[in-house]
């Protein structure tokens, strides 16, 4: 009975403590919320002229170059960072939300594409990395490029129409812009892939390696063909590397037919 009484007392203390903690948390949350609302109210009351001037800048914004639009978005974000909470404050004003959001969207998407292009152009095949791992890395990078470009192309027409209406540059979205540059940069990736395959083939010797050689050549040809379809063509150097791989496939098939015939 004594143990039961102690257990009941312990449970009561624990329960009381939990209720007390919950009450303290609730009071703290209300106080924090109240402080936040007071800060928002203070911004609404004191930053009106500042916000209206920014709104005028956004409405009047018109660019011929996407880099200028990116610079404007960076400046706008820096100015709005002085508010305690951008969305909470701006909803109290006649803020051009759709244009500001479209500017940010265009700027961020353009910057992401530029980063992706740089990642492909500056990609270096590490010779110390095993061939299989090296080829896998290049394959994953190609997949990343393809997914980004195809996702953009699916919504490009709608985005171009929307951006033109809001006087936001659209040239970077066209095949002659960043999209085209990324496609061309993928050709360099294919060249590096084929070069690695050729290097690995040269290091292989002996009839026991023949299945591996055949698989590796086909891997290289498939990758090259995939890039060719994505980019719309090869440059002279990449075409030469591709033809060399194709000739290896033909010669291997010829040797295999001779062996089977004999």
Compute the number of helices.
9
Residue share in helices? over 70%
The gross shape turns out to be elongated
Order of helices and strands: HHHHHHHHH
Count of distinct strands: 0
Mean pLDDT: 82
Distance between the termini: 97 Å
Largest sheet, in brief, is: none
Percent strand equals under 5%
Radius of gyration: 31 Å
Structural class: mainly alpha
List segments where confidence is low: pLDDT < 50 over at least 5 consecutive residues: none
Q: How many domains make up the coordinates?
A: 2
Keywords: Coiled coil
Protein name: PROTEIN CHUP1 CHLOROPLASTIC
Organism: Salix koriyanagi
InterPro entries: CHUP1/IPGA1-like
Outline the structure in words.
The longest helix is centred in the N-terminal third of the chain and has 45 residues. This protein has 2 domains: 99 residues, no CATH class; 152 residues. By secondary structure, it is mostly helical. It contains 9 helices and no strands.
């Amino acid at each position: 009975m004594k143990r039961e009484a102690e257990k009941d007392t312990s449970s009561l203390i624990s329960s009381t403590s939990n209720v007390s903690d919950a009450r303290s948390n609730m009071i703290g949350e209300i106080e924090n919320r109240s402080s936040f609302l007071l800060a928002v109210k203070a911004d609404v009351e004191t930053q009106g002229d500042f916000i209206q001037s920014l709104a005028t800048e956004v409405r009047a914004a018109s660019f011929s170059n996407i880099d200028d639009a990116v610079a404007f978005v960076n400046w706008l974000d820096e100015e709005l960072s002085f508010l305690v909470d951008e969305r909470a404050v701006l909803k109290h004003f006649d803020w051009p939300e759709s244009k500001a959001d479209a500017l940010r969207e265009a700027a961020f998407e353009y910057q992401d594409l530029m980063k992706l292009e740089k990642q492909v152009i500056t990609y270096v095949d590490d010779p110390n990395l095993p061939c299989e791992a090296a080829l896998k890395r290049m394959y994953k990078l190609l997949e990343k490029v393809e997914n980004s470009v195809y996702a953009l192309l699916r919504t490009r027409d709608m985005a171009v129409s929307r951006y033109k209406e809001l006087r936001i540059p659209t040239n970077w979205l066209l095949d002659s812009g960043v999209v085209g540059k990324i496609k061309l940069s993928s050709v360099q990736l294919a060249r590096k892939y084929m070069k690695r395959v050729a290097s690995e083939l040269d290091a292989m010797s002996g009839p026991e390696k023949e299945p591996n050689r055949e698989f590796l050549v086909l891997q290289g040809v498939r990758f090259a063909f995939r890039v060719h379809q994505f980019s719309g063509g090869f440059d002279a150097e990449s075409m030469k590397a591709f033809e060399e791989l194709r000739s290896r496939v033909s010669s291997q098939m010829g040797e295999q037919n001779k062996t089977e015939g004999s």
